[in-house]
What does this fold into?
Amino acid sequence: MAFEVTQCLFLLFLHRTVHRVEIEAVSEFLLHLLTGDVDKLPTEALIHHFWTKFVHLQKHVGRYSACLRKHGLTDVECYHDVGKYCGPRFGQRAQQRLDQCRHLLANERNVTTMDVAPNVARIFAKYRSCVSSVRRRLDANCADVLRKSITDRRLRTAKVVRATMNSMGPLLRALPTLRVIHLVRDPRAVAVSRSRWHESVRGMYTKHTRKSESRIVAEASLYCHHVTVDIRARLALDGEFPGRILSVRYEDVVAKPGQIFRDIYKFIDEPMPNVTLGEMQKMARTGLAMKLTTNWQSRMTYAEGITIARQCAELFHLMNT
It folds into this structure.
């Protein structure tokens, strides 16, 4: 059965400087995901706990989630010791260590020839052995299930949090039907939200602020820096790929969900299901979403608000472009 495939990406924002190698890897990963080229997807991505944790939001891959559970592929832990050596999250080890880990994880060089201690070599050898074992089980039992779930769908959508607009250029060139929805949010709301979470999901460098500095201001400033870079990259891509990137503000979605979602479905050339509009209107009536856009006003001081407005002036200007 032949049909035109439409791919769609929803981009949220990352709060750190992204290495060129990672930008390219993200673009390549998303290309394989959207085209259903499962054989080229990393094993770690195929057994990530999100497949089962958020299965209620991914009903079309429910059979794949069930397959993972059936074959004991939902609680596999290959990365534990590597995570200790390389850091559990980006930015928690020196760049030299991160570069070394990238080479070792990709097996780009013979691990025994690198300047690493024997115990480190054993960590990565154990990791590769574990991943190889998992991959064999995955390919034998579940890979075709996921491949079919993707390729049977004309519209394929992925929400990505750790991607930036710099990864979108190669994708837009490779996939003529790809559409990118660029979602941004008021930095003050982001900062207040993230300040309540564990440091592992906050901006990677704000934990190093001095005690006299406001963490909320630091979070907002870091967010503004990266989002400003991302919006400028998006504006450049707009010139090369007119009509294929849609910029959406979170606050506008909350304030007028009907209009924004109609715009989104028009953008991807799809009719909007009545159930989708109904859910959006229901959320709007509860007022909860609207509170999330304004509760930052009572959770930061006047001085913090003024400082953020000054440091994020360029972002506030770009958010209206």
About this structure: Residues 164-318 form one domain. Residues 283 and 289 are 7 Å apart (CA to CA).
